[in-house]
Amino acid sequence: MKTVAAFEIKFRQYLDPQGKLTQKPLPRFAQDPGELVKMYRMMSLVRVFDTKAIALQRTGQLGTYASSLGHEATHVGIGAAMKPEDAFFPMYREYGAQFWRGVQPHEVLLFWGGDERGNVFSGPKHDFSWCVPIATQYHHAAGAALAFKLRREKRAAVAVIGDGGTSQGDFYESLNAAGAYQLPAVFVVTNNKWAISVPLAAQTACETLAQKAVAGGFEGVQVDGNDIIAVRDTMEYALDKARSGKGPTLIEALTYRISDHTTADDATRYRGKDEVEDAKRKEPLIRIRKYLMDIDAWDQKKEEQLVAECAAQIDAEVKLYKDTGKPPVTSMFDHMFANLPESLVEQRAAAIAEEEQHG
Amino acid sequence: MKTVAAFEIKFRQYLDPQGKLTQKPLPRFAQDPGELVKMYRMMSLVRVFDTKAIALQRTGQLGTYASSLGHEATHVGIGAAMKPEDAFFPMYREYGAQFWRGVQPHEVLLFWGGDERGNVFSGPKHDFSWCVPIATQYHHAAGAALAFKLRREKRAAVAVIGDGGTSQGDFYESLNAAGAYQLPAVFVVTNNKWAISVPLAAQTACETLAQKAVAGGFEGVQVDGNDIIAVRDTMEYALDKARSGKGPTLIEALTYRISDHTTADDATRYRGKDEVEDAKRKEPLIRIRKYLMDIDAWDQKKEEQLVAECAAQIDAEVKLYKDTGKPPVTSMFDHMFANLPESLVEQRAAAIAEEEQHG
Amino acid sequence: MAKLAMVEAITQAMAYELEHDPAVVVLGEDVGINGGVFRATNGLQQRFGKERVMDTPLAEALIAGMSIGMAAMGMKPVAEIQFSGFIYPTVDQMINHAGRLRTRTRGRLHVPMVLRAPSGGGIHAPEHHSESNEALFAHMPGIRVVMPSSPTRAYGLLLAAIRDPDPVVFLEPTRLYRINKQEVEDNGQALPLDTCFVLREGGDVTLVSWGAMIHETLQAAAKLADEGVGCEVIDLATVSPIDFETILESVEKTGRLVIVHEAPRNCGVGAEVAATVAEKAIYSLQAPVERVTGYDVPMPLFKLEHDYMPSVERVVKGIRRVLEN
Amino acid sequence: MAKLAMVEAITQAMAYELEHDPAVVVLGEDVGINGGVFRATNGLQQRFGKERVMDTPLAEALIAGMSIGMAAMGMKPVAEIQFSGFIYPTVDQMINHAGRLRTRTRGRLHVPMVLRAPSGGGIHAPEHHSESNEALFAHMPGIRVVMPSSPTRAYGLLLAAIRDPDPVVFLEPTRLYRINKQEVEDNGQALPLDTCFVLREGGDVTLVSWGAMIHETLQAAAKLADEGVGCEVIDLATVSPIDFETILESVEKTGRLVIVHEAPRNCGVGAEVAATVAEKAIYSLQAPVERVTGYDVPMPLFKLEHDYMPSVERVVKGIRRVLEN
Ligand SMILES: Cc1ncc(C[n+]2csc(CCOP(=O)(O)OP(=O)(O)O)c2C)c(N)n1
Ligand SMILES: Cc1ncc(C[n+]2csc(CCOP(=O)(O)OP(=O)(O)O)c2C)c(N)n1
Ligand SMILES: [Mg+2]
Ligand SMILES: [Mg+2]
Description:
- The complex is a heterotetramer, with two copies of chain A and two copies of chain C.
- In chain A, strand 3, helix 6 and strand 4 form a beta-alpha-beta unit.
- Chain A starts with a strand and ends with a helix.
- In chain A, the strands form two sheets. Chain A has a six-stranded parallel sheet, sandwiched between helices. In chain A, strands 5-6 form a two-stranded antiparallel sheet.
- Chain A folds into two domains: about 10-325, Thiamin diphosphate (ThDP)-binding fold, Pyr/PP domains (Rossmann fold, 3-Layer(aba) Sandwich); about 330-359, no CATH class.
- By secondary structure, chain A is of the alpha/beta class.
- Chain A has helices spanning about 35-60, 70-80, 95-100, 105-110, 135-150, 170-180, 200-205, 230-245, 275-280, 285-295, 300-325, 330-335, 340-359, and strands spanning about 1-10, 85-90, 155-160, 185-190, 195, 200, 220-225, 250-255.
- Chain C is built from twelve helices and 14 strands.
- In chain C, strands 3-2-4-5-7-6-12 form a seven-stranded mixed sheet, sandwiched between helices. In chain C, strands 9-11-10-13-14 form a five-stranded mixed sheet, with helices on both faces. In chain C, strands 1-8 form a two-stranded antiparallel ribbon.
- Chain C starts with a strand and ends with a helix.
- The relative contact order of chain C is 0.12.
- Classes of the chains: A alpha/beta, C alpha/beta.
- Bound molecules: thiamine diphosphate (2 copies) and magnesium ion (MG) (2 copies).
- One thiamine diphosphate (TPP) sits at the interface of chains B and D.
């Protein structure tokens, strides 16, 4: 039998869990310790934010919250590789990427605190906000990428999905379309091994999720998602490729969801402690910090200072969040359409009357 | 960079367009000339049926009809490999497979003639009938296969889709699920190069459609869909595998839609004559007939007799079709639910009154 | 007898059918070891095994479509959609296949499946977790839509839905999952489908509601009872097809009708109730039919959720309006 | 001035906008060289090129979702769904994203897209090609649903839909595609959305319809005119949100209302029209509101299609019924 097509999936890594380099030379950005420190600082900020958000939820000051604990390298790596004019289509926990792009922590809190004004965030005005219906945002990214291509703009669309999300038809449809149109898109799969209680092996028979790109007819790459150097490097590679008209890439970032799925979840119901402990040893902050210390770009004093700075910054953001009052009842109606139809004008008036009477 | 996964797609063929063997030994069924003749006869019957159906449509005696011209080897190969207890989930033009399974030509005509009674066909009672919403039947096949697996029945579900259909999310979702559950399912893609006016290259960037199986984590095979020996052999391989608990297979059958998409289509709007002429030279009946003649299992006299037989049989079927009266208006209501709710009882009565008054 | 919350009564109904009918299987995202995100399938996989209670890949169209395939082959799948806003990928399979397989094959194949999904708001859930979408399914020929409003009705109606040989979309008001426990006898007794339940009798005004809003409606009725107003409260229960006999009988008695639902007003199920009553009982009506409903906006994030949902006060006001006429 | 069939008027509207607004793109299955299976995009790719008029892979969720992404980035996609029964995979994107992106981002992003699709039966098409599903979209907050019923209205309303900064589902009755040609001036003049059109004035009864059924409704009105009955015929045109002002004004004058639609009756848009009129104009009504509609069954294969669809006779009978009261 003749072989008519053949494919390989490669794995990319620079930093192992111990912070040792597994490959040289380093990509250009990683040769600048200042840049690495900048990324490390953002990873630390996200982690402080995360702890704080969970505390707020536990004390009834925030709604259900989706933690990003353990995903910091993947998220910050994505954010750091993108340009402001690129467009970002996140799922619901990519705060690291969003902070890098200008979204403020209190805006994230507003969203999970039940206030749409979190979506009017300080990031690029064209970025989409959090997408809860899994995989649907992949289509939006494909559409944005198509717009960029048609307008001959050197911009790329970046979408993120989880391992569970790769079971959705929308995921494949947009990959296939991106291949067919050769779109300037970068599709990231954050493989954190779990989709709530469903482990990867129950989700798919695939050995890698990067191989799903084969069905789209383009390149899929697997990267150590806890290695921020590898993530950013792979993202830059894919973004360059996209912006220069060479088509889409699927990047599978291997990481682990150390936290519960959300604050509404209890992961002890369905997974053992051992794998979580193991994941904690491989988590992304340890290794970059070790590496930075090894190259004398970081030390204990700087670390202490950073911790204090992050705490202060997040406290200020929490205050901003808490000081934001309830949105006006009219805001439910005012943005439904550019031109409000009569029926909504009536309902808006009724809702105002209702609020005045009963609060 | 480490390679973490690798895949190959193989191509299977026994008979080339000239009817010469490209591989030996032949699969067991193909060593019996009687069996090959039986398949050839069915292919011929389908072709006569097809010509007749188009003629009926052109003369206003049938609704829109989807021709199977050029697909006979793929369809009959599928039918011949299946067992009655397997379940079939066709799209809309697999008459060859269905005839083999007992569906009568006049039942096909009833369906395209606007009469649901065509769906109450003489094939296996568990077979699904034609599925017009593209790709949705793949889920039904996955569900049936899951039922067989759970009940420990040695049965397989076979679903067919077109090249265009592989762009639908449903297609991938069911592949992925079939891989995850290791379902006894065989998924066939009839790659006839066109989805109405959209050529394969505009549909996907993939070199092969068999490689879409990589996204499901199981084997994909490409077969010469105009070579009935290769189709049946590959189907038997995949069906054995399915029934013995070794999971699903995706089979891409390479063929060509020689006809218009349906009788409502005019293919000259979007494709050149040359490729159609080329396809006609490679079509499936020629080569098996040549081969049968080469091994002295067929001759001109038998051919003439067969043509006459097919014509007579199809004429009788057309008569059955034409003699079937309009379905009763009540049949619109009677099968809506096992227990008809009051509102439908009322509407049913109104429809009867309406018909009595105005016809 | 155990006092059960509605979500427990739902679990109990599935357990009963899993126990008594080998054709029944439960499937959905996280329904296995996790027992469902709302715990509706709590303990079922542990008790009945992984082949009766199955986690699925994360794909709702697949869940619906695979259920159709299983059902047509003689099984009785009870599928769960995890949250109300994620049911839309099932629409294609439900309208194009589940609702028509029996009629298009003139009875040769049929689809005894249940599609369970949470419904409605009021629990401060994240975006897309609080939608009311019964009207979408109610408009689909061949599909039954059922919404329970108490533990006993949840138990009896879910049993009926699983046993029914045709597809049922079973929408469970999450707001009622854990309040108002009731004694629920685990006797396998189903309640009838296609039938309203009169929850309170009264001669002055008919209140029709379903799902979680039954709660506010009953409270409003109790409030008005103090003022001597007799409200008849009818729970649709089967939202499609609607048992109009019971409703019309009540309206003929009371002459007044208020419909309460949480879904957006425009083309909601309330419109069908109002329209049919206005057609068949217009001469009994002593006042315009009143609808107290959600607004024609998506369910807002939870800081405004309370403002979106029809409150007891809004229901009372609606009743007063029809009484004034 | 050229006499155009409705489908040609639709092509002309798209051509006008492609010509005058560089942000407009047309996309869908077979809309390119083939000009669409109904020829609604005939010649557009040849004229405007492959980057303005694009074939898509065969995936409706993709078509809707990609349009949302393009629209949010400032383009104005006009997407075609090939046949009425294949629009359901777009439901998720339309309700969860298209209809809510503006409000959930409080105006930061918005979705100026049009989703065009054929609608309705009567042309002896194959299964799933003849559905009427406007009610599904009408129930979605944030989505406009428009259905033209003549070449001029198709031209003017499609221009308005494309120019509107919010999502519009534009459902084109295939039965009207090629009948009743009209002179259509290619002047780029849009017609207003959210507005009914009074097609015929009359004092005895108000007939409300939309899409292809306008045809039967007008015929019924003409028939009754011979008997001296004055029918006022109102074309909803924008099926959601409905212009009730025009309808209520008419009903206040005539005191009688018949609603005609092809979609199944249960929870159809007719229910909303009847319900709102029964709420706001009950004291004007001199007879029950009558709905003449399709039955609550899927559109049957074409041998029974004629029996499914409301005929002129059924409309006349419905009118007579309200006149008798
Ligand atoms: C369409 C849809 N179905 C179901 C859900 C409920 N849900 C939220 S997160 C989740 C699991 C997602 O897992 P994965 O894609 O791996 O992402 P992760 O949360 O692990 O980052 C599910 C089922 C949803 N949000 N959207
Ligand atoms: C969901 C859906 N979308 C669109 C259509 C309209 N349609 C019918 S056949 C067809 C092309 C199918 O092409 P392919 O899958 O290659 O199958 P083929 O007809 O070539 O065998 C299209 C777009 C449909 N039937 N279903
Ligand atoms: Mg995950
Ligand atoms: Mg094809």
